[in-house]
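Input record (Table S2, row 472):
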Amino acid sequence: LEADYHAEVLVLGSGPGGYTAAFRSADLGKKVVLVERYSTLGGVCLNVGCIPSKALLHTAKVITDAEDAAHHGVTFGEAKIDLDGVRKFKEGVVGKLTKGLASLAKARKVTVVTGKAQFTGARTLEVETSEGKKVVSFENCIIAAGSQSARIPGFPYDDPRLLDSTTALDLKDVPKRLLIIGGGIIGLEMATVYDALGSKVTVVEFMDRLIPAADPDIVKPLARRIEKRYEKILLNTKVAKLEAVANGLRATFESAKGGEAAPAPEIYDRVLLAVGRRPNGKAIAADKAGVNVDERGWIPVDNQMRTNVPHIYAIGDIVGEPMLAHKASHEGKLAAEVIAGMTHHVWEARTIPSVAYTDPEVAWMGLQEPEAKAKGIEYEKAMIPWAASGRAIGMAREEGATKILYEKGTRRILGAAIVGINAGELIAETVLALEMGADAEDIGLTIHAHPTLSETVYFNAEMVEGTITDLM
Ligand code: FAD
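Output record (flavin-adenine dinucleotide complex):
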């Protein structure tokens, strides 16, 4: 069978993993084909994930900042929300970035083939394009087919009132009452958006706390703020049944611990299911290429992103947690470089930061205290409440906190957890410190601009060193 396209490096999927891998491969001189089922590049992150959610969160922040301003002498009146305008802003943001990607692909002479793809052999892939089936043959392949929203069996998925993150980002309307199933990052970010736009939000979480992956100490300030704003936060609770009724979706709650009483059933105008994501490993006929996929859809890889088939690599959400864009792009670059023969500098990141872009933001990296305790790792720690930060006080946002774990004795940075506005930006300094093996003294000797929130990292280091004098 004659192939329609031939690639030295074929990349399947154009998310942050796939486009990074494709661009890096092209820059390293390879003939690259990038296959994507959707008409725009960028994958989940650019089209229906990171980017549109952050655009809507910006709008939400403008609304809540205006509300908060009333506490310090400035009143703007009630927000008038033109949903078309909000949507247009979000779509403009996405459009700028996806167009940018398309031109970057063109500039690098990456051939983009649009259509759903399946492996047909160890060196061939078939793509269902709008002009019929096309065959792509390849020397090396990087699978970057990502993930999709996980589902709970038995829910009424054909009812448009049941949303997933993609339909929630479409912002068709602002429901009066919204139930969000899942108190993780995606659920709470969407809660932040809809709460600001005027929905009465209820969040239900199976575990005993919100954002279970984060240190409870830094989730508390977020929980305190949203408990006041939202209708209800139900912890240790699951939705056992969800039924379509005339005036909404009826949720039946059950205690996650079994036996204990749960709240009575309630009817909501909309329900957003945000209970995690599952990898797309089962939907690409990987077996035809001989690539192992586990029963949940993950593709196992080694530390050079190689699958069990030596010329086929996999990266991003499809290979494992954490399912984050910056992890995917890091792995994409790595796979491209390994294919180009640059195995000499395979470098493993010491940490991958996580950020919930809620209000306040919650960010963490490296070793977290619950894990240190569970593993019996010795550490020193300090936690700086932002009530000690002049900058935070000046912005009326002193609910934040900066917590850092240090290696016992050497006081090298092991991990950090920050809650507060801009925590997602502040965590970067601690990631760099960890990667560079910096200790508390290094940070304490580094001059930080005053007054900034970044000083809370510096105060923290000084506190653990016992040299703190200049709080505020
Ligand atoms: P994806 O982005 O999932 O891309 C995979 C691509 O492969 C898709 O375009 C898909 O269409 C294509 N594909 C799959 N199968 C086929 C096939 N058979 N044929 C052709 N094409 C195929 N991460 C962050 O780091 N920060 C955030 O703020 C953030 N916010 C998020 C908000 C939401 C609402 C969601 C849902 C996710 C968010 N994420 C965030 C996660 C982030 O989007 C993912 O980690 C990231 O997109 C993974 O990149 P990837 O390259 O592995 O795959």
